[in-house]
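pinned: reference chain
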Amino acid sequence: MSESSAKELFPEGLDTSFQGVRERMLDSLESSGLLSDRTPGSVLRTLVETFSREMATFYTALTLAHDSGYLETAQGPALDKVVAMLGVTRARAGRLTGKVALARATPAPEDIIIPAGLRVSGPAVMVTIKGKSEPITPTLEVAEQAVLRRGERRVLVVAQETQDHDLAAIPSLAPGALNQLPRPLLGVETVSNPDPILRGGADEPDESLRARARVALRAGEQATRESIEAAVRAQGVQQVTVEEPQDGPAGQLIVRISDPGFERDVARQEAVRGAIRATKAAGVRASVIYLSTVYFAPEIIVEVEDEQMTAEHPDWPALRAEIDAGVRRYVAGLGAGSKILLDKLRATALAIPKVRSVSFGAQTALGPLPEGTTDLTQILNIATDRLTEGVGWALEAQETPAIHPTLGAAIYLKAVSRARLNVAVSMQNNSLPLATLQESVRSALTAWFNTLPPDASVTPPQRTLKQSSAESALKDKTLTKAVKAMQLVHEHTGETEYITSSTDAVVGDEERFIIGRITVTVESA
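pinned: its C-alpha cells
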C-alpha cells in the first residue's frame, strides 16, 4: 500500500494488528469504569481477544482489497486487472526475451536513465501466417529500468516481446536483429542484441509489469503529434517528423519519412499508414510523404601518424571501422534539404587521433543509386553537375542523404612517400658533443626546408634543394664551415639524387621530407 493511500484508509499511527486492537479495547473498557479485569483467561479478556482477532482479520482483508486497486501495491492477479485498464498485460512464459546492448561512441558525461518500456526494434521479418507470407517488425521493450553510468559506453538490459505485436511466428531472433530505437533516447546512439533472443520460460514478475505500466500511463495520450510520431517509430522507422502546416487547413498533418529506401518498401508503408489511422483523432487528415533517398558514396584517402602502418597492419581494420562509423554518424544526422560539406566530413575523420590528413578521391559522389547495384558510375554524372565548388552537395527539399548499405564508404590508406636527406658537413673545432652538433644540423635543415617556396607551375608542386642554399642556412645557424656532400633518397622508388654545386634535387608535395644520416667532421681552426 502506498503512503498516500494508507493515510486515506486508516488514521495515521493506527495499529490494526491483533495486539493493537486488543490493547485499545481493554484500555477503553477500563477507562470507562465498566470492566477492569485484564487477567489472561478472564471472561472479559477472552471476549476482547475473540473480537480483536476477528477485527484484525477484517482490517487485513480491507487493506488487501484497498491495496489491490493501486498500481504500486497490487500484486499477482490483482495487478493484472489494474494494468489491464492501461492496455498492458503480463508477459507470459514463451515470449521472446533476451539481452539488448545500448551504447554510445564516447563515455557518458552523466548517468543516462534507460526507462522500462523503452522499445527496440529491427527490420521487418517475412514469416508465414496461415499460409500467407507477411512482414512482421520484431519489437521488444526494456523490462526494468537501468542506468548507463557516467564514464561508461555500454549497458546491457533485459528486453521482452511487446503485447501489441504478434511475434508468435518468429521462434527466435538472431544476434544483431534488433538495431533500431523507435523513439530515440538522448545519449544513446546504437542498440543491438549481442546474443540470440529466445523464448523465455517464466511469467513476467510484478516489478517489471509495474514499470511497463508506468510508461504506458505516461504515453497514454493519443491524437497528438508526439503520439503519431511514436506510433510511426514503433513500426521500425527511424527518421520521421510530424508537422502541422501553418498556412494549411485546420485538422491536417504532414508526416515526413526519410528512412533510406523506405519509398520502395510497400509492406512498411502499409504498416505505417495503419499505425497512423489507429492513433490520429477522427476528422484529422494525415498526409504521408516519403522523401527520396540519394546515396552518398565517399572515397576517402587517409594518411595516418604511424608511418609504419600499411593496409596489412593489424590496427588498420579497427581504424578504418572508426572512420566509417564517424562518416555514417555525420550523414545520418543530416536531414532533408541539407548540405553535405566535405570540410565537415574531413573534420570528422581528423578528430580521430591517429589520422594525420584526409583527402577525397575522384569517385566521391552523390545520387539516386538504385537499390542492389554496385556500379558507382550510375551516380557520377548526376553528382558532377551538383557539386558546389569543391565544397559539397546541396540536396533538394524532398531529398535525404544516406550511406549505401552495401557499398558504404570506400576508405583507403595513403601510402607514405618519404624523401630522406643525408648530409655530410665539416664544423669548426669545439668541445660540444657529437650528438649536440648533429641535432643542431638537423634542426637547421628542417627549418631551411620549411622556408623553401613550392613551385606551383608543376603538378604536383615541388621544392628545389640547392647545396648553396642549404650551406648558407647551416653557416648561419650552426658551426658549419662547409657542406661536403648531400644525398636525397626517394624511399618509395629507391631513386637517389646527389646534390652538388651544379646539380639540384626536388621534393614533391606528396612526399614527406625527413632528415636522415648526418655525418660531422670536426676540423682544426
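why pinned: Confidence is low (pLDDT under 50) at residues 1-7, 376-389. Residues 91-203 form one domain.
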